[in-house]
Amino acid sequence: MLLKFTKMHGAGNDFVVVDLISQRCKLRPRDIRKLADRRFGVGCDQVLLVEAPGNPEADFRYRIFNADGGEVEQCGNGARCFARFVRDRRLTSKRVITVETASGMIVLRVRDNHRVEVDMGAPVFEPGKIPFERTEAAQSYSLEIEGGSLEIGALSMGNPHAVHRVEEDVQAVDLAHLGPLVENHPEFPQRVNAGFMQVLSDSEINLRVYERGVGETLACGTGACAAVVYGITRNWLQDTVTVNLPGGKLSVSWQGPGQPVIMTGPTAVVFEGTIRL
Ligand SMILES: N[C@H](CCC[C@H](N)C(=O)O)C(=O)O
Q1: Does ligand 1 lie within 6 Å of residue 222's CB atom?
Q2: CATH numbers and ranges of domains, the chain
Q3: Which of 12, 34, 240, 259 could potentially form a cystine with 255 if both were Cys, beta carbons 3.0 to 4.6 Å apart?
Q4: Could you tell me the pLDDT band of residue 36, with boundaries at 50, 70 and 90?
Q5: Contact 218, 13 (CB under 8 A)
Q6: Is residue 195 a known part of a binding site?
Q7: How high is the pLDDT of residue 147?
Q8: Angle at Cα 41 formed by Cα 14 and Cα 64, nearest 5°?
Q9: C-alpha dihedral (261, 105, 185, 225), degrees to nearest 10
Q10: What average pLDDT does this structure show over 53-59?
């Protein structure tokens, strides 16, 4: 089977985007893994599928698959690239695009210079909905790791996040060692994205994310949202924050519980291609 795709990235978090409206084909997990494979395929952190909506309120359905082939609920950097992709391919001329995802509806607003603003919806703190095996929601939790403990915030942005504040330079964190220990911690039954943030001021953080199903990525949109929400709940941050990630900067705003998290950032098209699956 020949499949047309577009390679894109949002602040270095890279994607293979496939229009399944114009091309009718069924992708199995092994096809997703091949698309994402950086040697035997195209190579990306996530594969994004563009489909016709099931919900009449939505313009499109947006499905997200990690490089390991697993389908996930949300991808913030991918949502921005999704908006650019559907307009570049003339699937819509709208600048405000409503999209159906596995974790609910999100709204994409196309801004200038290929930047896109995403209403990511409200964060969820109930442990059972993250999911995180604790009985009570708390501002922070002590996670037992290798005989020690890590203080984390835990919340869902549609997908699960654990965020730890480091006092030192975030570049000094041994993410290759700590990341998988958090990602696969038994108290996160669907695994978790592990964020490590360094607070520079009440309006700027450095962040690195070891993503569930991928490993460390150059940027994580939902991870940036989760880190800012955690920082605001701990009174370390005010309501609009610049998030410096290894691959670029995102702007994240949140006005408090029950309110949506608004994330704005860049999109880039790298190349278009056809792959034989
Ligand atoms: N690895 C994430 C999905 C992609 C999230 C990230 N790329 C973003 O921009 O939000 C998960 O398993 O929940």
Answers
A1: yes
A2: 2-119+267-276 (3.10.310.10), 127-259 (3.10.310.10)
A3: 259
A4: very high
A5: yes
A6: no
A7: 86
A8: 45
A9: -20
A10: 97
Give this complex's ipTM: 0.98
Query: How far is the centre of ligand 1, averaged over its atoms, from the C-alpha of 46 (Å)?
Result: 8
Rounded to two decimals, what is the model's pTM?
A: 0.98
pLDDT of residue 141: 98
Strand 2-10 and strand 268-276: the pairing is antiparallel
pLDDT at 229 over 90: yes
Q: What is the mean pLDDT of residues 37-58?
A: 97
**How many angstroms separate the CA atoms of 125 and 136, rounded?**
10
Tokens standing for residue 204: 């700027």
Which pair of tokens denotes residue 17? 């985007």
CB neighbours of 5 closer than 8 A, spacing ≥ 6?
A: 16, 17, 18, 35, 42, 272, 273, 274, 275
Catalytic residues: 75, 220
CA atoms of 146 and 164, how far apart (whole Å): 16
Residue 113 marked as a ligand binder = no
C-alpha angle 194-196-198 in degrees, rounded to nearest 5: 165
